[in-house]
Design a protein that fits this description.
- The protein folds into 3 domains: 8-177, Beta-Lactamase (2-Layer Sandwich), CATH 3.30.450; 197-273, Helix Hairpins (Orthogonal Bundle), CATH 1.10.287; 281-456, Histidine kinase-like ATPase, C-terminal domain (Heat Shock Protein 90, 2-Layer Sandwich), CATH 3.30.565.
- Helices cover 51% and strands 19% of the residues.
- The chain contains 13 helices and 14 strands.
- The strands form 3 sheets. Strands 1, 2, 3, 4, 5 and 6 form a 6-stranded mixed sheet that branches.
- Mean pLDDT is 86; it is low at 461-473.
- The protein has 473 residues and is an alpha+beta fold.
- Bound molecules: adenosine-5'-diphosphate (ADP).
- Adenosine-5'-diphosphate (ADP) is lined by residues 331, 335-336, 339, 379, 381-382, 384, 392, 397-400, 409-415, 438.
- Adenosine-5'-diphosphate binds next to helix 10 and helix 12.
Length: 473
C-alpha cells in the first residue's frame, strides 16, 4: 500500500463534523475552528466576537487580528492583542499530526470587569472606541481551565469521528490497491497475450506461405507424372500388356488423387493468406450441377445411391466463379455420397430463397434484396452430431478423426466450400440428424435482372425434376 500521508480533508465527513463543531460552539457561545496540517481552515463556527468586529473595522486592527489568527494555528495557546485568548488542541491519528482544533476567541476570566486593552484603544478611534467598550462589556468571561476542558472534549469527539473515517479510508485504499494490482496483472497478461497472438499470426502466415509454395512446387512434377502415365496408357511409348496397363492406370488414379489433395491445400493456404480471387460472371447453376453430377455419378452408382435433381427451370443465374461453384457442388455431393450408406438417397435442390440462413429461413418473408439462389444437398447418410456441426467447416476438422476412420478425406472440403461461398457473398450451413442424414444449404447472390424477371414472371414454382436412379446415369 502506498505510504502517502493522509490529509485531514480526505477523512473529513464535512457534514457530520460541521454539526459537531457548530453545536459545541453554539452551546458554549464561543468560536471553534478546525485547521489542517498545512494551516488551511476546514471548518469554523462563531469565529468572531463583537470586539473582533470593532477592531477589524480599522486597517491596523485588521492587520494585527490577521497576524493573531496566523499565530494561533502554530502556537498551543495564544493571547490576542485585544486581550481575548485562544486555546488549541492538536489532532493526531496513529502518531501523525493531522491538524489543530482552535477554541476561541474568549474573554479570560482575569479580565472580568476590565475595559478594552491599550492595544485596542491604539487601533480604534471615534465611534470605534465606543463600540469596542460596549463589546468588551458584553463579553462573557471564560475560565482557562474550563476552556481547556471544552477544547479537549471536542477534540476527543472529532478524533473518534476521524478514527471511524480513517478505518473506512484504509479499507477503501486496500481495495483500491488490490484493484490496481489486479489491473496491473491483467494489463501485463494482456500484453503478453497480444505478443503471443502476434507471434502466432506471424507463424500462421509463414505456414500458409510455406504451404502455398510447397503445394505449388509439388504440383509441377505431379502433372508430369500424370501426363507421362497418360501417354503410356495411350500407347505413345509402345504397346503395354494388361498388367502394365493396370499398374499405369493405378499410378494415374493415385496421381490424380494426390493432385486434388495438393490443390485443396493450395486453395486453403491461398484463402488463409488472403490471396483468394474469384471472378463474378453470370453462371447457370444447373449447368454446373450437371457437370458435377456427371463427375460423381460413377461413385453414386457404385453405392447404388439414388440422386434426384430438383431445379427451377427459370431460376436466375448466379453471379459467380464457375470453377469455384463447380468445386462447391462437387465437394457437397462428394461428401453426401461418401457419408451415405449403400442404397441411400441424395436430393439436390436449387430454388430462389432467403440468403441469410436457417433461422432467417423460418422468418416471415425475405425482402427482395435478401433473396438469392439456394443450393441444397440432402442425404440419408450417417448424419452429424449437433455439437460437431459448428466445427465441420473448420480446416482439417473431421467428426471421426480416429486412425481407424472408415471414410478417407482430409477435412479440407467443407472449409473450402465455406470460403468459396462466403467469397461469393453467400452463406452455408448444415442441418443434420445422426442416423437420418444431413442437408447442406449454400446461398448465392443472383444476377439482379434475372431475379427481377423471375419474380415478375412467377406465379407458382415450376420444378423440373430429373432423377438418376440406381442404375441409370
Ligand atoms: P473430409 O470429407 O475430407 O473429411 P470435409 O471438410 O469435406 O472433409 O468434411 C469434414 C467432416 O464433416 C467430414 O470428415 C465428416 O465428418 C463431416 N461431414 C461432411 N459432410 C458430411 C455428410 N454429408 N454427412 C455426414 N458427415 C459429413
Amino acid at each position: 500500500m502506498s505510504g502517502r500521508p493522509i490529509a485531514l480533508a480526505e477523512l473529513l465527513d464535512a457534514a457530520a463534523l460541521d454539526e459537531v463543531v457548530r453545536s459545541y460552539a453554539d452551546f458554549h457561545g464561543i468560536g471553534l475552528a478546525l485547521v489542517d496540517a498545512e494551516g488551511k481552515e476546514l471548518l469554523a463556527a462563531n469565529r468572531t466576537t463583537a470586539l473582533c468586529d470593532a477592531v477589524r473595522a480599522f486597517g491596523p486592527g485588521r492587520d494585527r487580528c490577521d497576524r493573531t489568527l496566523r499565530d494561533v494555528r502554530v502556537a498551543s495557546a495564544c493571547d490576542c492583542f485585544t486581550a481575548q485568548r485562544y486555546q488549541t488542541e492538536p489532532l493526531e491519528l496513529e502518531g501523525q499530526r493531522l491538524g489543530v482544533l482552535i477554541f476561541g476567541p474568549y474573554w479570560p476570566v482575569e479580565r472580568a470587569g476590565a475595559g478594552p486593552s491599550a492595544a485596542v484603544v491604539s487601533v480604534v478611534s471615534g465611534k470605534g472606541l465606543q463600540k469596542a467598550q460596549e463589546a468588551v462589556a458584553g463579553l462573557r468571561p471564560v475560565d482557562d481551565v474550563q476552556a481547556a476542558k471544552i477544547v479537549k472534549q471536542v477534540a476527543r469527539v472529532v478524533t473518534v469521528l476521524l478514527h471511524a473515517a480513517h478505518t473506512r479510508h484504509m479499507t477503501a485504499r486496500l481495495h483500491l490497491d488490490a484493484i490496481e494490482r489486479a489491473y496491473a496483472e491483467v494489463s501485463e497478461k494482456n500484453q503478453h497475450m497480444a505478443h503471443v497472438v502476434e507471434r502466432l499470426q506471424e507463424a500462421d502466415r509463414l505456414k500458409s506461405n510455406f504451404l502455398c509454395t510447397i503445394s505449388h512446387e509439388l504440383r509441377t512434377p505431379l502433372t508430369s507424372v500424370i501426363g507421362y502415365s497418360e501417354m503410356l496408357l495411350e500407347g505413345l511409348a509402345g504397346h503395354l500388356n494388361d498388367e502394365q496397363r493396370e499398374y499405369v492406370r493405378i499410378i494415374m488414379e493415385k496421381g490424380d488423387q494426390l493432385l486434388q489433395l495438393i490443390t485443396a491445400i493450395l486453395d486453403v493456404s491461398r484463402i488463409e493468406s488472403g490471396a483468394l480471387r474469384i471472378s463474378a460472371e453470370p453462371v447457370l447453376l444447373s449447368d454446373v450441377i450437371a457437370v458435377a453430377v456427371a463427375a460423381v455419378a460413377p461413385l453414386a452408382r457404385r453405392k447404388r445411391l439414388e440422386v434426384s435433381l430438383q431445379l427451377e427451370h427459370d431460376a436466375p443465374r448466379v453471379l459467380g466463379d464457375r470453377d469455384k461453384l463447380r468445386q462447391i457442388v462437387i465437394n457437397l455431393l462428394g461428401n453426401a455420397i461418401k457419408f451415405t450408406p449403400d442404397g441411400g438417397r441424395i436430393d439436390v435442390v436449387v430454388e430462389v430463397g432467403g440468403m441469410l440462413g436457417p433461422a432467417a429461413a423460418s422468418s416471415p418473408e425475405p425482402t427482395p434484396d435478401q433473396l438469392g439462389l439456394r443450393l441444397r444437398v440432402r442425404d440419408t447418410g450417417i448424419g452429424i452430431p449437433a455439437e460437431k456441426t459448428a466445427r465441420i467447416f473448420d480446416p482439417f476438422f473431421q467428426v471421426d478423426s480416429s486412425s481407424t476412420r472408415e471414410y478417407g478425406g482430409t477435412g479440407l472440403g467443407l472449409a473450402l466450400v465455406k470460403s468459396f461461398v462466403e467469397a461469393h457473398g453467400g452463406r452455408v450451413w448444415v442441418e443434420s440428424e445422426v442416423g437420418r442424414g444431413s442437408a447442406f444449404t449454400a446461398t448465392f447472390p443472383c444476377v439482379s435482372e434475372d431475379l427481377a424477371a423471375y419474380l415478375r414472371g412467377r406465379s407458382e414454382p415450376i420444378p423440373l425434376r430429373r432423377a438418376l436412379t440406381r442404375d441409370s446415369s
